[in-house]
Design a protein that fits this description.
Distance between the termini: 79 Å
Strand order of the largest sheet: 1-7-6-5-4-3-2
Structural class: alpha+beta
Order of helices and strands: HEHEEEEEEH
Number of domains: 1
CATH superfamily: START domain
Number of helices: 3
Radius of gyration: 22 Å
CATH class: Alpha Beta
CATH topology: Alpha-D-Glucose-1,6-Bisphosphate, Chain A, domain 4
CATH architecture: 2-Layer Sandwich
Number of strands: 7
Length: 185
Amino acid sequence: MVGQGITRWLQRSLTVCVVLFFGTIALVFLLGLIMPDHFEVQRTAQIQTSRARLHPLITDLKRWSEWTDWGEDGGDIIHEYSDQSTGAGAWHRWEGATSRAGIIVLTTADVERGVWYDIRFAHDPVPMKGALRYLPSESGVLLEWSVRGDLDGAMERALGPIFAWRMGADFDESLASLAEALESE
């Protein structure tokens, strides 16, 4: 009798776990069907510097490692840069065993307005569009960093808010590092 009771309890517990597991997957999938098919992240920082001092750090992809953690890789990522790493047309490609391969290409670089770029990760059909814009400010430079991209499929759309939240956190940290580097010079 006791053995039968335990068996029934285990069967019910397993059934509940299976139903919860597949129910969660179905819920995430259904959520993804109603979520937007794109994401956008935007952050700003007031930096006490001139556009002339800021622009060389923004427009030179080799210098992005000085203020972003996008280049930190623990040694397993191979980085490749265009012959000219600054200005429109410059690109940075990366590939590694533990990270997604990708490429960023500067499309516009203007000391008065900012830098625009396309960034694409491996297997993404369409690049994300990003910008680091210099906005009007009473003192220093108000720097706005934004990126917009498409989300393909229900699962990507369901996870879009998490992706945007993580990218926003990266932007916040990088903008703080950039401000600190420029203001300490």
